[in-house]
Structures are given as structure tokens and as C-alpha cells.
């Protein structure tokens, strides 16, 4: 074996080797012809506004990729909502970034898809604790990107330990069914009590209560087995759920009837925005996994729109260098860069790189706040219907 894992190295990405082969052929042809035109290239998903808001993510990695190249780059801030038009603009000699297109689009497309799904989950249960449980659904090499994007979209916590170390956040979690099974059928109390005795004091005492018997039975047993139990988690498999809302309400009723009103209910397993809306009034928190982590990448494309100062876009793309604006009423507007923007509008395109130097700082907390503020500004309401 030449490599321990099937992972493209950071060095290969930076050097432009993580590219589609036709960009190598493009470079060969341009070099042979002695051509290296000055271009304006834009990263865009939709040419016009769609009224379906997306949340931009992945900008720090994109900036790191372009750093050191003799180009100027402008981009929307990370955590900005958009529903059309460019999110990034690159100006400079085309051969300086030709081979980087494949990686650049991946750095933006996948995180943006995940952050957008996280935002949808957040707005489906705005008053609930919603945690990111999705790392197991993706290649482990991108765990930090997944958790970063989930937090950007407004989720309250993450589960991936290594990812937390990368992004400067502490991962959280309690117990899986495997722990319960290791103690054997009928010995659930022993498992809960071992957990309570072993884990750090600051770890919430949340017991998994659907391993072997009825959820109501196990929840009550856990509450009586652990002093100051913070909550119980139901992760009941879909084949056994039936009317899950009724099960959750029954657990709540039983806990209350036996004096455990302070024990919270957490739900996980196949949670979607539809589930969150259905159950947010009967549960205190949720773990969302595949809905966020398995998000489809947004279909960004990078297109040359100007060649040596002249409009040059291909058919089906809006030609010319563009600016993007947010108006005070929350509108998202796209204009040619040499034309006036709307009245009372703020330009969203901000300097990212100047002559190869990154001129913007990246802070996750700032981006999270930006996303929440911008969602309110545009009247974001999430997704509706069955997701």
C-alpha cells in the first residue's frame, strides 16, 4: 500500500494537482500558445434570484487555496445568506488559478450545502437544543468541515472529537446502545450507573432509554437509578417507533407522574426539519445526523465573465463583472459592477485577497452571528413540507 488512507494530501490540493484532468490540458494548450489572459471569473450557483436562501460556508479554506497567487479576490462574507448571483470573484491572469478550480468549487460547494441544511434544522426548532450528530455519515477526513458548517448554520453543539480539536470547539456526547448492550439484557441500571460514576462531572447525565424494553419503562428506571439525571434520550429505530409523538408524550407524562419533571427529553435518529416541527413542543432537544451531514453540495460553477476587460461569458451565463447587494428590506440584488446599485443597499462583495495576500480574518463566532442576523433580516423561514 502506498497510502494509509484514500485521501488527497493538502500539498496536492495547494499545488493544483487535485484538479480535473482537462485543466491540465488547458494549461498545456495555453502555455503552448503563449497565452495567459487577464480574466474576471465568478463563482455562482444561480444566475438570478431564486427565493431559496443558501448559507455561504467554506470561505477560509478557499482563501487558503488562493493565497500566494497573484490575483485579487472578492467574496461574500462567510455566514452570508444568498439566493442567486456570484459569491466570489477572482481577477488576474487565468493560468495562475486555472488548475485550482476543481478544489475551489469543492471547498465552497460541500460546506455551503451542509451549512444550509443546518440552518433549515435550526429554524425548524428555534427554541430547542439541536446538536450535530452526523460525522458517522461522511468520510472522516472532512469531519471538521462538517462540524464547522453545522455550527455556522446555528446548531448548538458537535459530536466529533477530532473535528472539535481542529475548529476549537469541544465535542459532546453521552452513551450509545453499545454501552448498554455490553452490560447485558436486564442490566440497564448497571450501565447507567457505570456511566454516571465514570465520566467527568461536567458531562451531562443523559441516559439512553430504549435499548431492551419500552421507552417509558426504561426512562423511569433511569430516572430512579441516577441521582440528578439531566435527561433521557430516545433513539428508537424507525421499525419500532409507531406513533413516535405519542411515545414521547407518554414518556414525559410518566416521568412527571413520578416526580421527575426536571428530566429533559432528547430525541435522535433520522431527525429532519419535518420531525423537528412535529416534536419540538414535546421534546427539549434533538440530535440531527444524516439530514445535515448528507446534504447535497450546492452546484457552484466558476465561469469567466470578462476577458481582457471585455464581457466574455459563455451562452447561458450572465456576462460581465458583477456586484451583489443587500437592501434594507432584506432583498438580494445583482448588478453589473460598473452600474449603480439599488438605493439604500450595502455591497456584499468584500475584499478577500489582494495580490495574493489574504486580507480578511475568519472567526467562527462572528460568522455564526452573521448568519443568524442575516436570516432575520431576509425573513428566513426555513423549508416547508416533507423534506
3D structure, described in words:
By secondary structure, this protein is α+β, with helices and mostly antiparallel strands. The protein folds into two domains: 185 residues, nicotinate phosphoribosyltransferase, CATH 3.20.140.10; 170 residues, Aldolase class I (TIM Barrel, Alpha-Beta Barrel), CATH 3.20.20.70. The protein is 36% helix and 19% strand. The chain is built from 14 helices and 17 strands. The strands form four sheets. The chain has a seven-stranded antiparallel sheet with strand order 12-11-1-5-3-16-17, with helices on one face. Strand 9, helix 12 and strand 10 form a beta-alpha-beta unit. Helix 4 packs parallel to helix 12 and helix 9 packs parallel to helix 11.
Amino acid at each position: 500500500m502506498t497510502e494509509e488512507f484514500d485521501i488527497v494530501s493538502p500539498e496536492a490540493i495547494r499545488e493544483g494537482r487535485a484538479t480535473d484532468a482537462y485543466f491540465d490540458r488547458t494549461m498545456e494548450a495555453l502555455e503552448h500558445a503563449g497565452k495567459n489572459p487577464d480574466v474576471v471569473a465568478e463563482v455562482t450557483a444561480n444566475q438570478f434570484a431564486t427565493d431559496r436562501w443558501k448559507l455561504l460556508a467554506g470561505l477560509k479554506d478557499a482563501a487558503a487555496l488562493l493565497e500566494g497567487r497573484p490575483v485579487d479576490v472578492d467574496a461574500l462574507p462567510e455566514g452570508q445568506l444568498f439566493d442567486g448571483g456570484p459569491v466570489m470573484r477572482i481577477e488576474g491572469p487565468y493560468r495562475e488559478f486555472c488548475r485550482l478550480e476543481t478544489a475551489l468549487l469543492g471547498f465552497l460547494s460541500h460546506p455551503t450545502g451542509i451549512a444550509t441544511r443546518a440552518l433549515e434544522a435550526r429554524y425548524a426548532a428555534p427554541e430547542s437544543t439541536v446538536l450535530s450528530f452526523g460525522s458517522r455519515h461522511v468520510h472522516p477526513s472532512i469531519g471538521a468541515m462538517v462540524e464547522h458548517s453545522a455550527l455556522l448554520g446555528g446548531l448548538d453543539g458537535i459530536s466529533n472529537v477530532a473535528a472539535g480539536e481542529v475548529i476549537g470547539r469541544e465535542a459532546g456526547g453521552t452513551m450509545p446502545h453499545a454501552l448498554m448492550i455490553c452490560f447485558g439484557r436486564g442490566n440497564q441500571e448497571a450501565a447507567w450507573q457505570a456511566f454516571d460514576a465514570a465520566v467527568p462531572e461536567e458531562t451531562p447525565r443523559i441516559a439512553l432509554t430504549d435499548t431492551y424494553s419500552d421507552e417509558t419503562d426504561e426512562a423511569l428506571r433511569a430516572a430512579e437509578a441516577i441521582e440528578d439525571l439531566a435527561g433521557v434520550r430516545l433513539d428508537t429505530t424507525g421499525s419500532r417507533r409507531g406513533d413516535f409523538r405519542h411515545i414521547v408524550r407518554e414518556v414525559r407524562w410518566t416521568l412527571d407522574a413520578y416526580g421527575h419533571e426536571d428530566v429533559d427529553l432528547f430525541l435522535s435518529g433520522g431527525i429532519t426539519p419535518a420531525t423537528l416541527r412535529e416534536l419540538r413542543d414535546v421534546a427539549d432537544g434533538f440530535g440531527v445526523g444524516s439530514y445535515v451531514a448528507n446534504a447535497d453540495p450546492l452546484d457552484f460553477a466558476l465561469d469567466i465573465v470578462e476577458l481582457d476587460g471585455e464581457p466574455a461569458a459563455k451562452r447561458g451565463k450572465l456576462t460581465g463583472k458583477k456586484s451583489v447587494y443587500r437592501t434594507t428590506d432584506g432583498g438580494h440584488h445583482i448588478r453589473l459592477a460598473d452600474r449603480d446599485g439599488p438605493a439604500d443597499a450595502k455591497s456584499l462583495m468584500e475584499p478577500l485577497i489582494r495580490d495574493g495576500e489574504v486580507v480578511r480574518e475568519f472567526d467562527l463566532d462572528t460568522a455564526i452571528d452573521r448568519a443568524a442576523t442575516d436570516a432575520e433580516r431576509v425573513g428566513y423561514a426555513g423549508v416547508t413540507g416533507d423534506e
